[in-house]
Amino acid sequence: MSLELRSAGKHFGTLTALQEISFHCAEGEFIAVVGPSGCGKSTLLRLIAGLDMPTTGLVCFNQTPVRQPSSERALVLQDRVLYPWLTLEANVAMGLELARKPRLQARQEARSWLARLGLAGFEEYYPHQVSGGMAQRASLAQVLAVQPRLLLLDEPFGSLDALTRLGLQQVLHELWQELGFGVVMVTHDVDEAVYLANRVMILTPRPGRILTDLSIPLSHPRNRDETAFIKLRRDVLAQLGIPSRDGVHRR
Amino acid sequence: MQSASSASSAPKRTGHATMRIWPYVLAVGTLLSLWQLAAWSLPAFLLPDPARVLSQMPEAISEGAFWNTLFTSLGRLFTALASAAALAVGMLFLGAAFPALRGYFRALMALLQSVPPIAWFPLLLLWFGFGALPIVIVVTLAALFPLAIAGLNALEQIEPRWLDLARVLGAGRWQVVRRVYLPAALPALLTGLEIGFGNAWRSLIAVEMLAGAARGLGGNIQLAGQLGDMVTVLIGICVIGLLTVVLDWLLLEPLKRRLLAWRYR
After folding, report:
1. How many domains does chain B have?
2. Could you tell me what percent of chain A has a pLDDT over 90?
3. Any idea what the CATH number is for the domain that residue B89 is in?
4. For the segment B189-213, what is each residue's pLDDT rounded down to a tens digit?
5. Are B178 and B242 in the same domain?
6. From A87, which residue of chain B is nearest by alpha-carbon distance?
7. Does B164 lie at the interface with A, CB-CB under 8 angstroms?
8. Which of B218, B215, B75, B199 is nearest to B131 (CA)?
9. Predicted ipTM > 0.90
10. Which stretches of chain A are DSSP H helices?
11. Domain of B21?
Protein backbone atom coordinates (compact mmCIF):
# COMPACT_ATOMS: atom_id res chain seq x y z
CA MET A 1 0.00 0.00 0.00
CA SER A 2 1.23 3.45 -0.76
CA LEU A 3 -0.56 6.75 -1.00
CA GLU A 4 0.96 9.74 -2.67
CA LEU A 5 -0.39 13.23 -3.19
CA ARG A 6 1.45 15.40 -5.71
CA SER A 7 0.59 19.09 -5.53
CA ALA A 8 -3.07 18.15 -5.13
CA GLY A 9 -5.45 21.09 -4.92
CA LYS A 10 -9.19 21.59 -4.90
CA HIS A 11 -11.16 24.66 -5.90
CA PHE A 12 -14.89 25.16 -5.52
CA GLY A 13 -15.56 28.00 -7.94
CA THR A 14 -13.42 30.89 -6.74
CA LEU A 15 -12.86 29.30 -3.33
CA THR A 16 -9.59 27.40 -2.94
CA ALA A 17 -10.14 24.69 -0.36
CA LEU A 18 -6.79 22.94 -0.70
CA GLN A 19 -3.57 24.05 -2.35
CA GLU A 20 -0.34 22.26 -3.24
CA ILE A 21 -0.80 19.28 -0.95
CA SER A 22 2.06 16.82 -1.34
CA PHE A 23 2.83 13.95 0.98
CA HIS A 24 3.42 10.25 0.99
CA CYS A 25 1.86 7.70 3.29
CA ALA A 26 3.67 4.38 3.50
CA GLU A 27 2.29 0.96 4.31
CA GLY A 28 0.90 0.87 7.83
CA GLU A 29 1.59 4.51 8.58
CA PHE A 30 -0.78 6.53 10.79
CA ILE A 31 -1.08 10.17 9.78
CA ALA A 32 -3.20 12.62 11.74
CA VAL A 33 -4.29 15.84 10.04
CA VAL A 34 -5.12 18.78 12.27
CA GLY A 35 -5.99 22.35 11.43
CA PRO A 36 -8.51 25.09 12.06
CA SER A 37 -12.11 24.66 10.95
CA GLY A 38 -12.64 25.15 7.25
CA CYS A 39 -9.07 24.36 6.23
CA GLY A 40 -10.26 21.67 3.83
CA LYS A 41 -9.44 18.66 5.97
CA SER A 42 -12.60 16.80 5.00
CA THR A 43 -12.04 17.71 1.35
CA LEU A 44 -8.60 16.15 1.61
CA LEU A 45 -10.13 12.86 2.76
CA ARG A 46 -12.73 12.97 0.00
CA LEU A 47 -9.99 13.38 -2.58
CA ILE A 48 -8.09 10.39 -1.21
CA ALA A 49 -11.30 8.35 -1.02
CA GLY A 50 -12.04 9.18 -4.65
CA LEU A 51 -15.39 10.79 -3.81
CA ASP A 52 -14.12 14.10 -5.23
CA MET A 53 -11.49 14.74 -7.89
CA PRO A 54 -8.65 17.21 -7.34
CA THR A 55 -8.81 20.26 -9.60
CA THR A 56 -5.01 20.39 -9.77
CA GLY A 57 -2.30 17.83 -9.11
CA LEU A 58 -2.66 14.13 -8.49
CA VAL A 59 -3.77 11.63 -5.88
CA CYS A 60 -2.12 8.25 -6.43
CA PHE A 61 -2.84 5.01 -4.65
CA ASN A 62 -0.41 2.18 -5.33
CA GLN A 63 1.11 4.27 -8.14
CA THR A 64 -2.27 4.59 -9.90
CA PRO A 65 -4.24 7.86 -10.02
CA VAL A 66 -7.43 7.66 -7.94
CA ARG A 67 -10.51 8.06 -10.14
CA GLN A 68 -13.33 6.57 -8.08
CA PRO A 69 -14.04 5.26 -4.60
CA SER A 70 -12.85 1.81 -3.72
CA SER A 71 -13.18 -0.40 -0.66
CA GLU A 72 -9.36 -0.40 -0.50
CA ARG A 73 -9.59 3.20 0.74
CA ALA A 74 -12.47 3.19 3.17
CA LEU A 75 -13.82 6.40 4.68
CA VAL A 76 -15.48 6.62 8.10
CA LEU A 77 -17.46 9.78 8.74
CA GLN A 78 -18.16 11.44 12.04
CA ASP A 79 -21.65 10.17 12.82
CA ARG A 80 -25.04 9.06 11.58
CA VAL A 81 -23.63 7.07 8.71
CA LEU A 82 -25.06 3.64 9.40
CA TYR A 83 -28.12 2.85 7.31
CA PRO A 84 -31.05 3.34 9.71
CA TRP A 85 -33.17 0.68 7.99
CA LEU A 86 -30.56 -2.07 8.49
CA THR A 87 -29.65 -3.85 11.70
CA LEU A 88 -26.04 -3.50 12.89
CA GLU A 89 -25.31 -6.93 11.42
CA ALA A 90 -26.80 -6.04 8.04
CA ASN A 91 -24.95 -2.73 8.06
CA VAL A 92 -21.63 -4.46 8.59
CA ALA A 93 -22.48 -7.14 6.03
CA MET A 94 -23.37 -4.50 3.42
CA GLY A 95 -19.89 -4.13 1.94
CA LEU A 96 -19.44 -7.89 1.82
CA GLU A 97 -22.79 -8.41 0.13
CA LEU A 98 -21.97 -5.69 -2.38
CA ALA A 99 -18.85 -7.69 -3.21
CA ARG A 100 -21.24 -10.62 -3.88
CA LYS A 101 -20.12 -12.77 -1.00
CA PRO A 102 -22.73 -15.43 -0.22
CA ARG A 103 -25.23 -14.01 2.24
CA LEU A 104 -24.61 -16.50 5.01
CA GLN A 105 -20.88 -16.02 4.86
CA ALA A 106 -21.26 -12.24 4.77
CA ARG A 107 -23.52 -12.34 7.81
CA GLN A 108 -21.14 -14.59 9.69
CA GLU A 109 -18.17 -12.35 8.96
CA ALA A 110 -20.23 -9.34 9.99
CA ARG A 111 -21.02 -10.96 13.32
CA SER A 112 -17.39 -11.70 13.99
CA TRP A 113 -16.42 -8.08 13.18
CA LEU A 114 -19.11 -6.83 15.53
CA ALA A 115 -17.84 -9.17 18.24
CA ARG A 116 -14.32 -7.94 17.65
CA LEU A 117 -15.47 -4.38 18.26
CA GLY A 118 -17.26 -5.37 21.43
CA LEU A 119 -20.78 -5.47 19.97
CA ALA A 120 -21.59 -9.15 20.38
CA GLY A 121 -25.27 -9.45 21.29
CA PHE A 122 -26.25 -6.27 19.46
CA GLU A 123 -26.42 -7.79 15.96
CA GLU A 124 -30.20 -7.40 15.64
CA TYR A 125 -30.35 -3.84 16.96
CA TYR A 126 -31.06 -0.93 14.67
CA PRO A 127 -28.65 2.04 14.76
CA HIS A 128 -31.15 4.30 16.52
CA GLN A 129 -31.40 1.80 19.36
CA VAL A 130 -27.74 1.96 20.34
CA SER A 131 -25.55 4.70 21.81
CA GLY A 132 -23.36 7.00 19.73
CA GLY A 133 -20.23 5.14 20.80
CA MET A 134 -21.70 1.78 19.82
CA ALA A 135 -22.86 3.16 16.48
CA GLN A 136 -19.36 4.43 15.81
CA ARG A 137 -17.92 1.01 16.66
CA ALA A 138 -20.36 -0.51 14.20
CA SER A 139 -19.26 2.05 11.58
CA LEU A 140 -15.67 0.96 12.08
CA ALA A 141 -16.71 -2.69 11.79
CA GLN A 142 -18.62 -1.84 8.61
CA VAL A 143 -15.58 -0.48 6.78
CA LEU A 144 -13.05 -2.86 8.34
CA ALA A 145 -15.15 -5.77 7.08
CA VAL A 146 -14.21 -4.89 3.50
CA GLN A 147 -10.54 -5.06 4.54
CA PRO A 148 -9.31 -1.67 3.40
CA ARG A 149 -5.57 -1.12 3.10
CA LEU A 150 -6.04 2.53 3.97
CA LEU A 151 -8.52 3.80 6.53
CA LEU A 152 -9.70 7.39 6.14
CA LEU A 153 -11.23 8.79 9.31
CA ASP A 154 -13.06 12.11 9.38
CA GLU A 155 -13.21 13.17 13.03
CA PRO A 156 -14.39 9.69 13.85
CA PHE A 157 -14.83 10.32 17.58
CA GLY A 158 -15.67 14.01 17.39
CA SER A 159 -19.26 13.72 18.56
CA LEU A 160 -18.62 11.29 21.41
CA ASP A 161 -18.21 12.02 25.11
CA ALA A 162 -14.66 12.08 26.49
CA LEU A 163 -14.70 8.63 28.10
CA THR A 164 -16.16 6.88 25.08
CA ARG A 165 -13.64 8.69 22.90
CA LEU A 166 -10.69 7.42 24.95
CA GLY A 167 -12.05 3.88 24.76
CA LEU A 168 -12.48 4.03 21.02
CA GLN A 169 -9.02 5.52 20.51
CA GLN A 170 -7.68 2.43 22.24
CA VAL A 171 -9.79 0.16 20.05
CA LEU A 172 -8.57 1.91 16.91
CA HIS A 173 -4.96 1.72 18.05
CA GLU A 174 -5.17 -2.01 18.67
CA LEU A 175 -6.85 -2.71 15.34
CA TRP A 176 -4.22 -0.62 13.55
CA GLN A 177 -1.36 -2.52 15.19
CA GLU A 178 -2.98 -5.86 14.51
CA LEU A 179 -4.21 -5.37 10.96
CA GLY A 180 -1.48 -3.07 9.65
CA PHE A 181 -3.62 -0.80 7.48
CA GLY A 182 -2.52 2.77 6.84
CA VAL A 183 -4.57 5.58 8.40
CA VAL A 184 -5.20 9.18 7.47
CA MET A 185 -7.27 10.69 10.28
CA VAL A 186 -8.66 14.19 10.37
CA THR A 187 -9.23 15.42 13.90
CA HIS A 188 -9.74 18.54 16.00
CA ASP A 189 -8.32 16.78 19.02
CA VAL A 190 -4.56 17.43 19.27
CA ASP A 191 -4.24 14.99 22.15
CA GLU A 192 -5.82 12.27 20.03
CA ALA A 193 -3.51 13.08 17.10
CA VAL A 194 -0.34 12.86 19.19
CA TYR A 195 -1.56 9.76 21.02
CA LEU A 196 -2.35 7.72 17.93
CA ALA A 197 -0.31 8.92 14.96
CA ASN A 198 3.20 8.43 13.56
CA ARG A 199 2.97 11.80 11.94
CA VAL A 200 0.88 14.87 12.58
CA MET A 201 0.25 17.15 9.63
CA ILE A 202 -0.87 20.67 10.44
CA LEU A 203 -2.86 22.54 7.79
CA THR A 204 -3.22 26.30 7.38
CA PRO A 205 -6.65 27.93 7.14
CA ARG A 206 -8.12 28.82 3.72
CA PRO A 207 -6.57 27.72 1.50
CA GLY A 208 -5.48 24.56 3.28
CA ARG A 209 -1.76 23.99 2.86
CA ILE A 210 0.61 21.79 4.79
CA LEU A 211 2.21 24.02 7.41
CA THR A 212 4.18 21.38 9.25
CA ASP A 213 4.64 17.64 8.93
CA LEU A 214 5.68 16.57 12.40
CA SER A 215 6.90 13.09 13.16
CA ILE A 216 5.88 11.55 16.50
CA PRO A 217 8.80 9.32 17.46
CA LEU A 218 7.22 7.94 20.65
CA SER A 219 6.87 4.18 21.03
CA HIS A 220 3.60 2.49 21.92
CA PRO A 221 1.91 2.21 24.34
CA ARG A 222 2.10 5.95 24.80
CA ASN A 223 1.73 7.70 28.08
CA ARG A 224 -0.20 10.95 28.01
CA ASP A 225 1.55 12.20 31.15
CA GLU A 226 5.05 11.64 29.85
CA THR A 227 7.15 14.80 29.31
CA ALA A 228 7.92 13.99 25.69
CA PHE A 229 4.20 13.52 24.94
CA ILE A 230 3.28 16.80 26.61
CA LYS A 231 6.02 18.60 24.71
CA LEU A 232 4.87 17.24 21.33
CA ARG A 233 1.30 18.19 22.08
CA ARG A 234 2.44 21.68 22.99
CA ASP A 235 4.43 21.92 19.76
CA VAL A 236 1.36 21.03 17.71
CA LEU A 237 -0.80 23.52 19.60
CA ALA A 238 1.84 26.21 19.13
CA GLN A 239 1.85 25.54 15.39
CA LEU A 240 -1.91 25.99 15.43
CA GLY A 241 -1.36 29.36 17.08
CA ILE A 242 -2.61 28.35 20.51
CA PRO A 243 -0.13 29.45 23.21
CA SER A 244 0.03 26.81 25.93
CA ARG A 245 -0.51 27.73 29.54
CA ASP A 246 2.45 25.54 30.51
CA GLY A 247 4.77 27.68 28.40
CA VAL A 248 3.59 30.90 29.98
CA HIS A 249 3.95 29.37 33.39
CA ARG A 250 7.46 28.18 32.72
CA ARG A 251 8.61 31.57 31.51
CA MET B 1 -34.91 -10.91 21.20
CA GLN B 2 -37.20 -10.04 18.36
CA SER B 3 -40.21 -11.50 20.17
CA ALA B 4 -39.16 -9.86 23.41
CA SER B 5 -39.00 -6.45 21.85
CA SER B 6 -42.33 -6.76 20.04
CA ALA B 7 -43.93 -8.04 23.25
CA SER B 8 -42.61 -5.10 25.21
CA SER B 9 -43.91 -2.55 22.74
CA ALA B 10 -47.27 -4.28 22.18
CA PRO B 11 -49.08 -2.83 25.21
CA LYS B 12 -47.91 0.65 24.27
CA ARG B 13 -49.38 0.24 20.79
CA THR B 14 -52.81 -0.93 21.96
CA GLY B 15 -52.87 1.89 24.51
CA HIS B 16 -52.16 4.27 21.70
CA ALA B 17 -54.89 2.72 19.51
CA THR B 18 -57.59 3.07 22.19
CA MET B 19 -56.65 6.70 22.67
CA ARG B 20 -56.95 7.26 18.96
CA ILE B 21 -60.29 5.52 18.56
CA TRP B 22 -62.39 8.06 20.51
CA PRO B 23 -62.29 10.85 17.93
CA TYR B 24 -63.54 8.34 15.36
CA VAL B 25 -66.38 7.14 17.58
CA LEU B 26 -67.43 10.76 18.07
CA ALA B 27 -67.20 11.50 14.36
CA VAL B 28 -69.33 8.49 13.44
CA GLY B 29 -71.84 9.51 16.10
CA THR B 30 -72.02 13.04 14.69
CA LEU B 31 -72.62 11.81 11.15
CA LEU B 32 -75.33 9.37 12.26
CA SER B 33 -77.05 12.17 14.25
CA LEU B 34 -76.99 14.53 11.28
CA TRP B 35 -78.39 11.78 9.09
CA GLN B 36 -81.13 11.11 11.63
CA LEU B 37 -81.99 14.84 11.88
CA ALA B 38 -82.20 15.10 8.09
CA ALA B 39 -84.30 11.94 7.89
CA TRP B 40 -86.86 13.44 10.29
CA SER B 41 -87.35 16.44 8.06
CA LEU B 42 -87.46 14.58 4.73
CA PRO B 43 -89.91 11.95 3.47
CA ALA B 44 -88.63 8.37 3.75
CA PHE B 45 -88.49 7.82 -0.03
CA LEU B 46 -85.94 10.65 -0.28
CA LEU B 47 -83.93 9.80 2.83
CA PRO B 48 -84.58 6.64 4.86
CA ASP B 49 -83.44 6.92 8.47
CA PRO B 50 -80.27 5.22 9.81
CA ALA B 51 -82.19 2.58 11.77
CA ARG B 52 -83.97 1.37 8.63
CA VAL B 53 -80.85 1.30 6.47
CA LEU B 54 -78.66 -0.34 9.09
CA SER B 55 -81.30 -2.96 9.85
CA GLN B 56 -81.50 -3.92 6.17
CA MET B 57 -77.74 -3.99 5.78
CA PRO B 58 -77.13 -7.55 7.12
CA GLU B 59 -79.66 -8.94 4.65
CA ALA B 60 -78.21 -7.04 1.71
CA ILE B 61 -74.70 -8.09 2.64
CA SER B 62 -75.61 -11.76 2.99
CA GLU B 63 -76.59 -11.98 -0.68
CA GLY B 64 -74.17 -13.56 -3.15
CA ALA B 65 -74.70 -10.68 -5.59
CA PHE B 66 -73.34 -8.23 -3.05
CA TRP B 67 -70.08 -10.17 -2.67
CA ASN B 68 -69.76 -10.45 -6.45
CA THR B 69 -70.07 -6.69 -6.73
CA LEU B 70 -67.66 -6.14 -3.89
CA PHE B 71 -64.98 -8.43 -5.32
CA THR B 72 -65.35 -6.92 -8.78
CA SER B 73 -64.59 -3.50 -7.33
CA LEU B 74 -61.79 -4.71 -5.08
CA GLY B 75 -60.24 -6.61 -7.98
CA ARG B 76 -60.14 -3.42 -10.05
CA LEU B 77 -58.80 -1.45 -7.10
CA PHE B 78 -55.92 -3.81 -6.42
CA THR B 79 -55.03 -4.32 -10.07
CA ALA B 80 -54.79 -0.55 -10.38
CA LEU B 81 -52.80 -0.14 -7.16
CA ALA B 82 -50.35 -2.83 -8.22
CA SER B 83 -49.90 -1.23 -11.66
CA ALA B 84 -49.41 2.20 -10.11
CA ALA B 85 -46.86 0.82 -7.64
CA ALA B 86 -44.98 -0.95 -10.44
CA LEU B 87 -44.89 2.23 -12.54
CA ALA B 88 -43.79 4.35 -9.59
CA VAL B 89 -41.03 1.95 -8.58
CA GLY B 90 -39.86 1.78 -12.19
CA MET B 91 -39.68 5.57 -12.30
CA LEU B 92 -37.79 5.60 -9.00
CA PHE B 93 -35.30 3.06 -10.30
CA LEU B 94 -34.55 5.13 -13.37
CA GLY B 95 -34.68 8.43 -11.47
CA ALA B 96 -32.24 7.12 -8.87
CA ALA B 97 -29.80 5.77 -11.43
CA PHE B 98 -30.01 8.80 -13.74
CA PRO B 99 -30.54 12.00 -11.73
CA ALA B 100 -31.20 13.93 -14.95
CA LEU B 101 -34.44 11.97 -15.40
CA ARG B 102 -35.87 13.07 -12.05
CA GLY B 103 -36.86 16.54 -13.16
CA TYR B 104 -38.43 15.12 -16.30
CA PHE B 105 -40.50 12.55 -14.41
CA ARG B 106 -41.58 15.16 -11.93
CA ALA B 107 -42.67 17.55 -14.68
CA LEU B 108 -44.55 14.72 -16.37
CA MET B 109 -46.36 13.80 -13.17
CA ALA B 110 -47.13 17.44 -12.31
CA LEU B 111 -48.67 18.02 -15.76
CA LEU B 112 -50.72 14.84 -15.73
CA GLN B 113 -51.80 15.42 -12.16
CA SER B 114 -53.45 18.71 -13.06
CA VAL B 115 -56.15 16.73 -14.91
CA PRO B 116 -58.54 14.72 -12.70
CA PRO B 117 -58.03 11.14 -13.92
CA ILE B 118 -61.73 10.66 -14.50
CA ALA B 119 -61.62 13.24 -17.32
CA TRP B 120 -59.78 10.67 -19.45
CA PHE B 121 -62.62 8.21 -19.08
CA PRO B 122 -64.69 9.09 -22.19
CA LEU B 123 -61.57 8.76 -24.32
CA LEU B 124 -60.59 5.42 -22.77
CA LEU B 125 -64.15 4.19 -23.13
CA LEU B 126 -64.01 4.82 -26.89
CA TRP B 127 -60.67 3.04 -27.20
CA PHE B 128 -61.26 0.04 -24.99
CA GLY B 129 -65.05 -0.26 -24.72
CA PHE B 130 -67.15 -1.08 -21.66
CA GLY B 131 -64.86 -3.37 -19.75
CA ALA B 132 -62.61 -3.35 -16.76
CA LEU B 133 -59.66 -1.84 -18.65
CA PRO B 134 -60.73 1.83 -18.89
CA ILE B 135 -61.77 1.74 -15.24
CA VAL B 136 -58.47 0.23 -14.15
CA ILE B 137 -56.50 2.82 -16.16
CA VAL B 138 -58.32 5.74 -14.56
CA VAL B 139 -57.82 4.30 -11.08
CA THR B 140 -54.14 3.56 -11.82
CA LEU B 141 -53.59 7.19 -12.76
CA ALA B 142 -55.35 8.32 -9.59
CA ALA B 143 -53.01 6.20 -7.44
CA LEU B 144 -49.88 6.89 -9.47
CA PHE B 145 -49.43 10.64 -8.94
CA PRO B 146 -49.09 10.75 -5.17
CA LEU B 147 -46.94 7.62 -5.21
CA ALA B 148 -44.57 8.85 -7.90
CA ILE B 149 -44.30 12.40 -6.59
CA ALA B 150 -43.64 11.25 -3.00
CA GLY B 151 -41.00 8.83 -4.26
CA LEU B 152 -39.29 11.36 -6.55
CA ASN B 153 -39.16 13.91 -3.73
CA ALA B 154 -37.59 11.30 -1.47
CA LEU B 155 -34.82 10.75 -4.02
CA GLU B 156 -33.94 14.44 -3.85
CA GLN B 157 -33.87 14.45 -0.07
CA ILE B 158 -31.62 11.46 0.42
CA GLU B 159 -28.63 11.94 2.76
CA PRO B 160 -25.54 12.39 0.56
CA ARG B 161 -23.45 10.54 3.13
CA TRP B 162 -25.50 7.37 2.57
CA LEU B 163 -24.56 7.50 -1.10
CA ASP B 164 -20.89 8.22 -0.33
CA LEU B 165 -20.77 5.33 2.11
CA ALA B 166 -22.21 2.89 -0.42
CA ARG B 167 -19.65 3.95 -3.02
CA VAL B 168 -16.83 3.62 -0.50
CA LEU B 169 -18.07 0.13 0.33
CA GLY B 170 -17.80 -0.71 -3.34
CA ALA B 171 -21.36 -0.31 -4.68
CA GLY B 172 -21.92 0.18 -8.40
CA ARG B 173 -24.65 2.41 -9.84
CA TRP B 174 -27.46 -0.14 -9.68
CA GLN B 175 -26.38 -1.46 -6.31
CA VAL B 176 -26.64 2.08 -4.94
CA VAL B 177 -30.15 2.29 -6.41
CA ARG B 178 -31.32 -0.99 -4.98
CA ARG B 179 -29.60 -0.90 -1.62
CA VAL B 180 -29.70 2.80 -0.72
CA TYR B 181 -32.13 4.84 -2.82
CA LEU B 182 -35.06 2.44 -2.68
CA PRO B 183 -34.93 1.64 1.04
CA ALA B 184 -34.36 5.33 1.78
CA ALA B 185 -37.41 6.26 -0.32
CA LEU B 186 -39.62 3.53 1.12
CA PRO B 187 -41.16 5.56 3.98
CA ALA B 188 -42.15 8.33 1.56
CA LEU B 189 -43.38 5.74 -0.91
CA LEU B 190 -45.67 4.20 1.71
CA THR B 191 -47.05 7.62 2.63
CA GLY B 192 -47.65 8.11 -1.08
CA LEU B 193 -49.38 4.75 -1.19
CA GLU B 194 -51.73 5.80 1.61
CA ILE B 195 -52.73 8.92 -0.30
CA GLY B 196 -52.78 7.02 -3.58
CA PHE B 197 -55.02 4.40 -2.03
CA GLY B 198 -57.53 7.05 -0.99
CA ASN B 199 -57.44 8.67 -4.41
CA ALA B 200 -57.81 5.33 -6.17
CA TRP B 201 -60.76 4.28 -4.07
CA ARG B 202 -62.64 7.55 -4.69
CA SER B 203 -61.89 7.46 -8.41
CA LEU B 204 -62.98 3.85 -8.62
CA ILE B 205 -66.44 4.55 -7.21
CA ALA B 206 -66.80 7.65 -9.39
CA VAL B 207 -65.75 5.90 -12.58
CA GLU B 208 -67.96 2.90 -11.86
CA MET B 209 -70.89 5.28 -11.51
CA LEU B 210 -70.04 6.77 -14.90
CA ALA B 211 -69.64 3.40 -16.59
CA GLY B 212 -73.25 2.51 -15.90
CA ALA B 213 -73.14 -0.89 -17.55
CA ALA B 214 -70.15 -2.04 -15.54
CA ARG B 215 -70.83 -3.74 -12.26
CA GLY B 216 -69.15 -2.79 -9.03
CA LEU B 217 -70.05 -0.81 -5.93
CA GLY B 218 -70.26 2.49 -7.81
CA GLY B 219 -72.42 0.94 -10.53
CA ASN B 220 -74.77 -0.47 -7.92
CA ILE B 221 -75.25 2.88 -6.25
CA GLN B 222 -75.86 4.57 -9.58
CA LEU B 223 -78.42 1.95 -10.61
CA ALA B 224 -80.21 2.03 -7.25
CA GLY B 225 -80.38 5.81 -7.47
CA GLN B 226 -82.02 5.65 -10.89
CA LEU B 227 -84.58 3.20 -9.50
CA GLY B 228 -85.24 5.46 -6.50
CA ASP B 229 -84.02 2.79 -4.10
CA MET B 230 -82.48 5.09 -1.50
CA VAL B 231 -81.96 2.30 1.03
CA THR B 232 -79.57 0.53 -1.36
CA VAL B 233 -77.80 3.81 -2.16
CA LEU B 234 -77.20 4.46 1.51
CA ILE B 235 -76.15 0.86 2.18
CA GLY B 236 -73.61 1.29 -0.62
CA ILE B 237 -72.29 4.48 0.92
CA CYS B 238 -71.99 2.84 4.35
CA VAL B 239 -70.20 -0.18 2.86
CA ILE B 240 -67.70 2.07 1.07
CA GLY B 241 -66.97 3.98 4.26
CA LEU B 242 -66.57 0.82 6.31
CA LEU B 243 -64.42 -0.83 3.68
CA THR B 244 -62.00 2.10 3.60
CA VAL B 245 -61.44 1.82 7.32
CA VAL B 246 -61.12 -1.97 7.19
CA LEU B 247 -58.65 -1.94 4.27
CA ASP B 248 -56.55 0.72 5.91
CA TRP B 249 -56.50 -1.22 9.12
CA LEU B 250 -56.03 -4.70 7.61
CA LEU B 251 -53.63 -3.85 4.80
CA LEU B 252 -51.89 -0.50 4.93
CA GLU B 253 -51.01 -0.45 8.63
CA PRO B 254 -49.58 -4.00 8.70
CA LEU B 255 -47.73 -3.30 5.44
CA LYS B 256 -46.16 -0.21 6.97
CA ARG B 257 -45.23 -2.04 10.14
CA ARG B 258 -43.67 -4.83 8.15
CA LEU B 259 -41.71 -2.75 5.64
CA LEU B 260 -40.71 -0.08 8.13
CA ALA B 261 -40.04 -2.48 11.00
CA TRP B 262 -36.95 -0.48 11.95
CA ARG B 263 -39.04 2.61 12.67
CA TYR B 264 -41.35 0.83 15.06
CA ARG B 265 -38.59 -0.55 17.27
Report:
1. 2
2. 42
3. 1.10.3720.10
4. 999 999 999 999 999 999 998 876 5
5. yes
6. B262
7. yes
8. B215
9. no
10. 41-49, 88-98, 103-116, 132-144, 162-179, 190-196, 227-239, 245-250
11. 1-30
